[in-house]
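#onboarding

Welcome to the new folks! Below is a worked example of what a typical request in this channel looks like: someone posts a single protein sequence, and someone else replies with the predicted structure as tokens. Don't worry about understanding the tokens yet, we'll cover that in week two.

Example request:
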Amino acid sequence: MVNEAKRIVGFSGAGISTESGIPDFRSPNGIWAKNRTVMFQEFMASYDDRVEYWRQKVAIWPEMKKAIPNDGHHFFVKIDKEGKLLGLITQNIDNMHQKSGLRENKIVELHGTLKNVVCLSCGVKISMDEALKRVEAGELAPQCLICGGFLKPATVSFGQSLSENDLTYAFNLCSECDLFIAVGSSLVVQPAAGFPVLAKNNGAKLVIINRTETCLDSIADLVIHDGIGKTLQALLS
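Example response:
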């Protein structure tokens, strides 16, 4: 399928990152099971909720930062260099696809990135590393040094809207591809879970690689219930 395809779109979820040692969010032992979810509206309304939100993000950033891309990430770099990759849609916020060498303009980060922090008032951006230093120095919920607005990691929280530009880009990719490869996702979160269906309805072949069953297995052309890096490693040679 990869050899025959000319316009491949990749889609990645937490499963590709857990193979690099990054904890997932949704499992029974995941981050959300161990921490209280702070809604976007709560973040905006309460200092205590902003402190809790920052505590959680500061706790997971060092592990994300030191993680190394695996063969699953490198596979998409390979097909990009071969001129076959239209784009990569990811639900992950860990910057791993960029670290693997995939070009920034090929990546759609549906849920944002933890690498950067943005002021919700004036839009200025700083690095997560800079924000981390300020939190460790005692600013438990840092504010913008320019306008005083709330600083927030550039991730999409529950209750916060996804980027319309990113959604449009993702929809266009799914409409134009001839092969859609979904890896490491349970394919239940909307609107992301609708992208494989859209690609399939537009004539693309659908491949799903995930350790457990997904709700879209029945419409896929190929389903592999195994590790992502292990499965794609052979295609890297």
